[in-house]
Amino acid sequence: MHFLDQAKIFVRSGTGGPGAVSFRREKFIEYGGPDGGNGGKGGDIVFEAVAGLNTLIDFRYTQHFRAPRGQGGSGSNRTGGGGEDLVIKVPVGTQILSEDKEEVLLDFTKVGQREVFLRGGDGGRGNASYKTSTNRAPRQHGTGWPCEEAWVWLRLKLLADAGLVGLPNAGKSTFINAVTNAQAKVGEYAFTTTRPQLGVVRHKSREFVIADIPGLIEGAADGAGIGDRFLGHIERCRVLLHLVDANGDDVAESYRIVREELEAYGAGLADKPQVVALNKIDTLDDELIAALSAELEEASGSPVIPLSGAAGTGVDWVLDSLIEAIGPAPGAVAPDDEGEDVMEWSPL
Predict the structure, then answer these.
(1) CA distances in angstroms from 149 to 14, 30, 67, 84, 113, listed in the order given
(2) In this structure, what are the phi and psi dihedrals at residue 177, rounded to the nearest 5 degrees?
């Protein structure tokens, strides 16, 4: 299945049905009077967030959505049938944006969330409703209220607890493959990851979702490489895991490049809690690992975890740090401070 996180669609609610002009005509009943019924209401445009979807690819092939109009009224004071609501199912994490992308109209953050976006027009009045003491045989009727229509953008922001960031080939795909059941592509060249990946981590009776996005390079905010278009998928993450390749020319410079791109993107990414890890240490000796870790710690101002996603070194340490930053699971009871064990960590 192809991944698509943006799509432009046209939506239109249903027009209200017209009211009827009718008069009661029955044998032996004199002066039957008007009995035209009202028109039916047009269908609404409704968006609903459902489970099991993680792409907007369906909206590439179906871009126009029109709810049915209401049916017209009829004699004997019969109201016309209302048009059925048109329910558009979207993945959790979808935002509905205005055509100029300047305003967020709706934001779907949980399964089952259902919102009426465009309301169908009300049905027109039949001539029976116009009858008065001075107008006993009205012939006017309502044509039905008009529909609403709009061009909107759908933008998908995947919901994850932790997000992976780093330069291309920093080992993000290898790490997510090691800790989840994701099957991200791994290769010895840049940009092997071309679309975001999600995986569920199960660690020490906890579950959380981690997102891997394509690597950032210098100038990504200006469109270099794949650009920063996928950074929206980690806007809602509670913590960022910043992986730095230990085999790079300058680990401090590698860290700085990514941080500057996060700051240029905005949306509070640079202010999120982060866990910094020096990845691919399985190819280095202990002395060089210690020197690079100290250099990276000075550049980042954060503790650095030596890590090897391929060999499994430091993986538990990283996952524990992520869980600590994410916080307790919903509904979990906080442990008592008294007698709580304090765990000593060893980098290797």
Answers:
(1) 9, 46, 10, 16, 22
(2) -70, -30
Q: What backbone torsions phi and psi does residue 42 show, to the nearest 5 degrees?
A: -75, 160
Predicted TM-score (pTM) of the model is 0.73
Q: What is the pLDDT of residues 222-236, one digit of tens each?
A: 555 555 667 777 788
Burial 53-81 (b: 16+ CB within 10 A, else e): bbbbeebeeeeebbbbbbbbbbbebbbbb
pLDDT tens string 81-138: 999 999 999 999 899 999 998 899 999 989 999 999 999 999 999 999 999 989 988 9
Give the separation between CA 121 and CA 297, rounded to whole angstroms.
62
Place of tokens 């004699």: 75
- What is the separation of C-alpha 52 from the centre of its chain, rounded to a whole number of angstroms? 13
Look at strands 162-165 and 239-245 and give their pairing.
parallel
> Of 293, 212, 280, whose CA–CA distance to 247 is shortest?
280
